[in-house]
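Q: Convert this sequence to structure tokens.
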Amino acid sequence: MTRLRLKRFFVQTPIWQSFVLVIFLLIGGVALIFFHIQPSDKLLILHYTIPFGIDLVGAWYQLYEIPIAGLVIALINFTLAYLFYTKQRYVAIIVVLATLILEVMLIVGLYLIVSQNAT
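A:
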């Protein structure tokens, strides 16, 4: 029963397309850090705001926390969407699309942080 329910969940076009896009965005975020940030002892900018400037600095490996947070959020949201799917399909689709939008925002923020730190 669970296997059939999972298959029905992923057959929905917005759900599987969003799932694939989220996976590609997460892999792209890790690749962005891997190819543009060199491991070093110097501190990198981890957070920047217009009114206050640089708020947070840290080691190079702390940049990987952004894709990890995106992965955790995606896992939680896809699990919730799977649980909602049987009774409230539209809510499940909204949760999945919100996850996709959130992942895009995380990748844009990660790109801006990496572009500040790339030498």
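The CA atoms of residues 69 and 106 lie 9 Å apart.
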